[in-house]
Amino acid sequence: MKKAIIYVRVSTDEQSEKGYSLQHQEDRLRQYCQQQQIDIIGFYKEDHSAKTFERPAFNELLKFLKTKRGNVDLLLFLKWDRFSRNAADAYSMISQLTKLGVEPQAIEQPLDLNIPENKIMLAFYLAAPEVENDRRSLNVIAGMRRAMKDGRHVTMAPKGYKNARNEQNRPIIVPSKDAPMVKWVFEEVAKGVLSIKEVWRTARRKGLNVGRSNIWYLLRNPIYYGKILLPAYKDEETKIISGLHEPIISEDLFYEVQDVLDGKKRNPKPKYTAREELPLRGFLQCPRCGRALTGSPSRGNGGTYFYYHCTNGCKERVKAEEVNKCFTKELARITIKDKYITLFEKAAEHYYHQNQERKSEKEVQTEIDKHLQRIKKAQQLLLDGELSAAEYKEIKSQYEPEIAQLERKRQDIEQMDANLLEYVKGTADLLRNLLRYYNNATLPVKQKLIGSIYPKKLIYEKNEFRTTEVNEVIAAIRRLGAAEEKREKEKAPETGGQSEEVIRIGSIQSL
User: pLDDT tens digits for 444-454?
Assistant: First the structure.
């Protein structure tokens, strides 16, 4: 008498949509074995997709066959699509079972695999369910993309929204009871005062049930300002679609938060009244204790006098008029010769023409493509029943905000590239007339210039300034000029005025 293991499988969607039943399969297999006088020595059942053989029950079955080698003759199942819905994997598994001395057989689609012609029918039985899977996947993807193009969110609602139906009974998302708290989270982060961790803890105490890692995905998700990310697919590029749902926050607030997350927005500085007499307030460091100097007026000798001074008790105090005059001399000192500024313009123009496709843009696009591929893979696993809707939603909510942020970064790079020569021209004009610009500028413009030229605080001591560094562009041009002077002294051949000095676009733009 032959000995057999019977195997039944059904996935959740098959059971609900097609009426497959584990009990029905088991009854048919036991009846068949009784009629054919086959001894059943094992029974395995599972609710799992047949896309791959990474199935819990099947792995146990395979382990049993390896330990009972030679004691099992048949592996019986109802149809070949119960065995596998992937032709390539099925052939590999059939070969593995054959080596174990086990013949796989579908009782409703019996095939004698020793007859070569029957392999044609086997190919059909195995390919048909795989084709069905692929067609269903394409139909689902097409349907989801149509809905997304119409501005509809097609998966589980993110935190702050809930799934609902509109007048046409179509699925939509609407703000939930958590929406005000989600808005509060964005507003607090945008202020740049509390850390993300502190905002998250406070939100949790106020009742917003969101995990520590998920708070980052929430803050990156464009769904909250009314947009839907449509991933790239085949020849279609990634797009940001205006959603039909109600936004919880404004677009401006969303991008303020992105700046905070990217470190572009610093914590607000203490407020003080701007004074024309104190343009360097906030940019000076105490030479005694290292703390920032402030400034204030002082009455005496029949008039009002302004001073920069320390508040740390070290009694550092200098006349503002004296410091301001010395600063204009400092600007004159760092003024660059016109010929070197012209050299910088030529070098930047040469760099622009040689680097139309920037490496950084390619790197960003590569990251976008990676994230899109991850979402696509998760979507396929969802369709195959190997991921739950909640797991798919978590993966999707993780990567969609990152994709939107990367798209914004890529667009920024493209815009900077397009405007590079304009930035260079403006920077060159500013550097040629730096002292005149500063002297004629309003107080806000003066302070912007100071902050742009000196990324770190200045130290005033003994009637002169000292600082550790200046703006990268100025430093690069000065190095370029020094190299040119050295070449001139050595009487080296002309190089056309082009330098290998690489200057970041952001540093040009900052001036």
Answer: 888 888 888 88
Tell me how crowded residue 132 is: count the other CB atoms within 10 A of its CB: 12
Burial of 220 (0-12, 13-18, 19+ CB in 10 A): buried
Active site residue 510: no
Task: Answer yes or no: are the C-beta atoms of 155 and 393 closer than 8 Å.
Answer: yes
DSSP assigned state of 26? H
Tokens standing for residue 437: 């610009």
- What whole-number distance in Å separates Cα of residue 506 and Cα of residue 413? 10
- Asked if the model's pLDDT at residue 505 lies above 50, the reply is no
- Nearest-angstrom CA–CA distance, 363 and 171: 37
- pTM for this prediction: 0.40
Residue 398 CA to residue 400 CA, distance in Å, equals 6
Out of 11, 84, 397, 499, which one is annotated catalytic? 11
Say yes or no: 96 and 218 in one domain. no
Residues 201-227 have a mean pLDDT of: 89
Does a structural domain hold residue 337? no
The total number of structural domains in the chain stands at 4
Please check whether residues 20 and 127 belong to one and the same domain: yes
What does the H/E/C string look like for 77-113?
ECCHHHHCCCHHHHHHHHHHHHHCCCEEEECCCCCCC
CATH of the domain at 88: 3.40.50.1390
Residue 299, in any domain of the structure:
yes
Do 179 and 204 belong to one domain?
yes
Are 198 and 231 contained in the same domain? yes
Residue 444 sits at the vertex; the CA angle it makes with 316 and 450, to the nearest 5 degrees, is: 55
Q: Check: CB of residue 160 under 8 Å from CB of residue 253.
A: no
DSSP state of 162: E
- pLDDT tens digits, residue range 155-197? 888 999 999 888 888 888 999 999 999 999 999 998 877 788 8
* H-run or E-run covering 362: helix 359-383
Alpha-carbon separation of residue 372 from 95, 234, 411, 467 (angstroms): 35, 12, 17, 46
End-to-end CA distance of the chain: 89
Do 331 and 435 contact (CB within 8 A), yes or no? Answer: yes
Give residue 100's domain range.
3-136
Q: Rounded distance, CA 224 to CA 180, Å?
A: 12
Q: Please report which helix (H) or strand (E) contains residue 29, including its range.
A: helix 22-35
Answer for the pair 242, 151: CB distance below 8 angstroms, yes or no: yes
Residues 251 and 290 in one domain: no
Same domain as 224, residue 179 = yes
CA distances from 414 to 129, 137, 231, 407 (A): 46, 35, 20, 11
Query: How far apart are alpha carbons 137 and 26 in whole angstroms?
Result: 29
C-alpha to C-alpha distance for 222 and 228, rounded to whole angstroms: 7
